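Note to self: user wants both folds in one dump. Writing first protein now.
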Amino acid sequence: MSPDILNYLPQRPPFVMIGELLSADGIVTTSTYTIPEDNILVTNGLFTEPGLIENMAQTAGAGTGYHAKQNGLPTPLGYIAMIKNVQIASLPKVNDTITTIVNFEQAGLNFHHVKGKVLLNDREIACCEFKIFVSSNPAA
């Protein structure tokens, strides 16, 4: 895990599911994550469905946290309010590196509607849509 990723997320180990923030332009956020063997969402050598969903959610959160830091604000807290259209084609193995892309489709008041997808070797293995509530009470 890149040490600076913790600057953009309220989550802390052992519940950090992204390793490096590659880009965050306010519309699209991209991250990578190499699945460690000791990840709490790894079972029988595979990164499970909840891990993939959390990885997409944390990628969205890291993008929001990055923009907050760029504006001198603390990292906000985000809560998943809705998940829909989840599709999991396959599960990555320990030591695989996944790339996650999240598109911010719509923002209003304290909600963001995002679509995420996870790629393994340039092949989409998971996707879903989220509605994320962003709290005005930032993480400590």
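First done. Writing the second protein, which came from a different request thread.
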Amino acid sequence: MNTFTQQDESTLRTALQSSADAWNRGDLQGHVAIYDPSVTVMTNHGPRPGVEAIVKSFGDAYFVNDKPKQQLHMESAVVRPLSADSALVTGRFILSGGDDPERSGWFTLIWVRTAEGWRAVHDHTS
């Protein structure tokens, strides 16, 4: 029987940091590597399905010439196991630097263990 372990929590925290690191170096594909292809992202207009929709949205809004307008930092992450193969991760994101004012908000990611490893299947960021 599988159980959710401290190693699983560490893997999720590392994935979040790797995602932010990829953003900060302008690697948008690396940033979205945490997502399962079936991911949905909740927006003001309802759920947006799929990784490519996320790439287009983020690229249009937050990148110029393949570089991020601001640096991304995540803090206050809390990992809550839901089962041996799923977890809820909440935290705060901060976009800072550049010519834009600092932006921050809160996120909720639902993760599942897949054949490829842990992947986020739902993202609600406000």
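Dump finished. Worth passing along: The chain has one domain: 6-125.
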